[in-house]
Amino acid sequence: MMQFAPSNRKKAFTLVELLVVFVVVGLLAGLATPVLGRARLAGQQASETAAAKSLITAYLAAAQDQNGVLLKGYDEEGEACDSKGNQFQVGSSQALRWPWRLAPYLNYQLEGALLVNERANALDPSDPNQSYLVSASPSLGLNSYFVGGHENGQPAYSYVTNGTCVTRLAQAVKPSQLIVFSSARGVDPMKGKNVDGYYYVTSPQSSPKWPSAWSSSGSAKAYGQVRLAYSEKAVTAQLDGSVSLLNFSELRDMRRWANEAARQDNPNWKP
């Protein structure tokens, strides 16, 4: 009987088998991409929530050092130093804006508190050439028109002089709902587009007033520099030290922005 020696030829994949493999890989990649995207967004939200907690803790510590007087968001008599102890020039943006004046209460550990996610990747707070950008675009903005004060023109000045702006801890009617910090975004003058981070945020009834609906493609200024990046929600820190995740409808409630709105219990209060 004739016997045939086994063949040494390796069996190759057929075209159909290769196509099946490609389809399966494509389907798995399609399923994995949204999952990875949600995981990345959840990580960013967690980082910003932790940053908000650090900021409000530092902000309240600064107030305690000043016998309850709140740190101004924009202080025309402000003084500040960088992380190496070098004093910024009086009247410079770094001294006027709040980030570098709050930095000592963060032990100058600005990454993870003042700067997180995109801002942490874009800016180096130890680089003196970037100190201006650190002052201009921290990840979270301060509600300085109504908390602390914003000495930079009308109506910000009048809010302090007529008592609309809370300047001391004891003045707050409902500190548990009064927003101090919020996720922020601004316009990059070099790129002409919205980027993460801005040093202050303004309320729905400030000028310009917010539109009635949220649009991620809308300009930063139209929505008071507030950024709703987490399923159309923003991270906020309140004057009692709490941190929240608020949607657009909740953010339109003026009782969360202004002490007088809380006093009158009027969500549509206008300054």
Give the SSE map:
Layout: H1 15-65, H2 93-96, H3 98-102, H4 117-122, H5 131-136, E1 140-142, H6 156-161, E2 179-183, E3 185-188, E4 193-196, E5 233-238, E6 243-247, H7 248-251, H8 259-264
Antiparallel strand pairs: 1-2, 2-5, 3-4, 5-6
Please tag this protein with its features.
single chain, 271 residues, alpha+beta, four-stranded antiparallel β-sheet, two-stranded antiparallel sheet, 8 helices, 6 strands, 32% helix, 10% strand, globular
Structure, explained:
The chain has one domain. The strands form 2 sheets. It has a 4-stranded antiparallel beta sheet. A two-stranded antiparallel sheet has the order 3-4. The mean pLDDT is 91. The chain is an alpha+beta fold and 271 residues long. The protein has helices spanning 15-65, 93-96, 98-102, 117-122, 131-136, 156-161, 248-251, 259-264; strands at 140-142, 179-183, 185-188, 193-196, 233-238, 243-247. It is globular, with a radius of gyration of 25 Å. It has 8 helices and 6 strands. 32% of the residues lie in helices and 10% in strands.
Largest sheet: 4 strands, antiparallel
Calculate Rg over CA atoms: 25 Å
Q: Can you give the mean pLDDT? A: 91
Q: How many strand segments?
A: 6
Main-sheet strand order equals 1-2-5-6
The assigned structural class equals: alpha+beta
Please, what is the oligomeric state? single chain
Q: What portion of residues is helical? A: 25-40%
Sequence of secondary-structure elements: HHHHHEHEEEEEHH
Distance between the termini: 105 Å
Low-confidence stretches: none
How large is the share of residues in beta strands?
5-15%
Question: What coarse outline follows from CA principal-axis ratios?
Answer: globular
DSSP summary: helix tally: 8
